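User: quick one - fold this with magnesium ion bound?
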Amino acid sequence: MTPSVPTIVIGIIIILGMPILLHIILSSSRTYTIPPTVLLVGPSNSGKTSLQTLFERGSSDTETHTSQVSQSVELNASTDSATKKSFRNHDATDGTYTKFLFVDTPGHGKLRNSAMAKLNSTEKLQAVVFMVDAAALGEPEILAPTAAYLYDVLLFVQKRATTSAKTKAAIPIMIAANKMDLFTALPSTLVKSNLEAELTRIRASKSKGLLDSGVGTDEIGSEEQDSWLGEYGSAKFTFSQLREFDVEVEVVPGNVTGDGPGAEKWWWWIAQRI
Amino acid sequence: MLDSFEILTTSGVVVWSRTYSAINPSIINNFIADTFIEEKGGFAAVADSKSAANNLPYKSDQHTLKWTLVKELGVIFVAVYRSLLHLSWVDKLVDNIKTIFVKLYGEQLLKPHTTLVECGAFDEYFDQQVQELDQTTAKGASSASAAPLEHNTVPTIIGDDPLDQPGLTYRGRALNGSNEPASPELAPATTPNGSRPATPSNNHLLVAKAGPVAKMSRRARKSKSVASAPVSSGDEAPSLKKGKKTAKKGRKWDADGYADEDDDVQLDYSANPNSDSEVEVRSAALEEVDSDTWGTRSKGKFVLNDLKDEVHEILASEAEKKTTTKSQPKSGLFGTGVNAISGLFHNIVGGKTLTKEDLDSAMKGMEEHLLKKNVAREAAVRLCEGIEKELLGVKTGNFESINARIQAAMEASLTKMLTPTSSLDLLREIDAITAPSVTSLRKARPYVMSIVGVNGVGKSTNLSKICFFLLQNKYKVLIAAGDTFRSGAVEQLAVHVRNLKELTAREGGHVELYQKGYGKDAATVAKDAVTHAAQEGFDVVLIDTAGRRHNDQRLMSSLEKFAKFAQPDKILMVGEALVGTDSVAQARNFNAAFGAVRTLDGFIISKCDTVGDMVGTLVSLVHATNVPVLFVGVGQHYSDLRNFSVKWAVEKLLSSN
Ligand SMILES: Nc1nc2c(ncn2[C@@H]2O[C@H](COP(=O)(O)OP(=O)(O)OP(=O)(O)O)[C@@H](O)[C@H]2O)c(=O)[nH]1
Ligand SMILES: [Mg+2]
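Assistant: Sure. Structure tokens for the protein plus magnesium ion:
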């Protein structure tokens, strides 16, 4: 029996089409299952892991130590429930909730590139929380590396906003000034101005600094303008300069443990952006 | 006694802890940073789930930390105690706790998207272990005190105590701390100090109220328990059991989980003077009933199976598992054939669980590759071993081959190794010293930088390159001729200074040479140069030093004095990209030459332009010393100095040609 031509053609189409079909099904189902993500970055000992456990458990008595790996937790936020401004919403029954992933990253200098890689590769990244220890930010030994890390994060987000297609919207950044319960903590206005001043200095010294190994001499000119944080040529850096790139930066004070403004404001900031 | 015992995840969350006396959290933070992140104790030490006895104990000022980890689960077990105490049983404790905890709660640690581990019931297991192991070394420390049991017997409600359950409800679903099958019923319990509430969610530990047995004579009791011994001895771990203990079946009950040695009332009815640190409440009459059941109602009293038995069962079965997996025979010819085919298939499609055989050949290839890139054998072996241990038992991702997986792991490993703990912004650092902020209360002074290395690696050249960079940024630089040894060295430096002056005069650079000729003590010259610079208002002092063989004892030992006299802010060592196997020893000796309190701050790798992709030397140097590479020299001109980029180096190292 000789098979008819249509049978062969249909057979071939099925055989060739199957992988493509499968791929389409798989890839489309994946985008549906990935929840929006909020990334938590910042230097070591600023209280990132503490905040994550606070949001997950509703209580802040969990001890934490230096993190070595990222950790994500699933949380639910609402913008229309009665308890929308509180992360202690586990028992809430009203309102609509959005599920999202809250991802903690290690802050240690040697592990920083894992956080930066997360920044680069996370799908549906909706917001970045950069946590700083407001009680330690008065010391130059803490301020300098904190600002250096923030510089990298801001520059990355700025570059992404300028180069990427429209689908990847600019990512809003909240600078969470933590440990406001301590009397040594700087007020958020000072946190902001100290960071801006230090970022100005870093920006200046980067522009005068040595080239990185691997950067060819022919690339120098084009690099310069792209890797300038904020308004090109401005003498002073301010966070508001990033608005030009649609990147919103806000400093919000709070604390995980002790008495103070608490973490509610941070939660509300996040809830509005997912 | 222990100060603290913590069980924490690699993500930094403490899932269970017991504190006897509060310790500074930074002790454990430093332990984590030094051992796991910066790998100061050596790399291979960390990569395996070894016994605590084989892991190097971590010592802080006053404390010793014994630890072990389970890599697959990302969980670390740490015991902290004062170094003055030599607690030899802690190793055993850490190991046993690991085994028990993993057995009971291991699965929970694998759950994604959560940091919660419900292990409230673990308190009892921990107490049991501490009492059992601590006792073996502290025999007869406290004398047997046979307090009347009735006085300490308090009926306690167990099972609904809210203490350890901080609002663990999740949208209607209550996350109860209890994970155990036993029912949280009301039951009479004996607590040694009844004033405190019993630990929540521990339900199978309840012991019968002491019956008439407690009032029996010592001898009568002894004979009774001896008689009943054979019934219970079968389910105790042989490895943990002392011969004499077989005679009695100790039931320990430490209800509140906070018992300290001193407020622990010792109840001993076994008449065995060696077991007196155990709290024993034993109703001999019930022996036969409870030895093989969880909870039984017997003669109107609620009885639960012994915790100790359960613990010993866990430990014994895990130990057994270990030996059986080790001696597992290889599957037959047919089995290996099928395995090979499915292995091939999985290698293409991914989803393969990596075995030692899979990795061995692939790792050999990776090692060869690294050696070809000029990485010293020692460093290559260490890197490969670390990766092999990391990947053993790991499942490859979809459509991921073994080699791709290894490549990815090596990239991560190299990146972590080469990334410095704190990145260097040299200009910022100089500014902080020469123009300190008002709040820091420090006096302005010149920034001092010195350069060391073996002969002929390009110390003076690289010093001049750094000088050129600083002059371009309008700093006032003083170059100190610290090589008072090799003839011609001072003149060579003078030529560099003259060139630099010419090159940067237009841009407003200012550079001078400080020299005192030959034969003088180099350390004194350096010190004088710094003083001179401070008086004359220089911003930076760059000190050249004599090149020396790293195995030249006399010259190497003078480096310590040099560091003490000149007090450099940065000591950089110049290493050649070309050096062969010697580089590791060189770096080690130089790093150790500055005395106990000072090490190198960074490397400058010279002549990188001459080696192409073979930049392996820098891996060898970092491997040997944990000191970061800061700059690389890429040519003959004063401007041919670059910041070291980790990404650039890793790409070169992994590129295949
Ligand atoms: N006083 C005070 N201490 C806090 C607060 N938040 C966190 N801490 C403490 O800060 C320390 C560090 O917190 P972690 O959450 O472990 O820090 P981290 O940012 O995760 O650090 P890495 O994991 O090393 O990056 C802990 O000892 C916390 O108890 C706060 O609001 N106030
Ligand atoms: Mg953390």
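One thing worth noting: Chain B touches chain A through 63 residues (CB under 8 Å).
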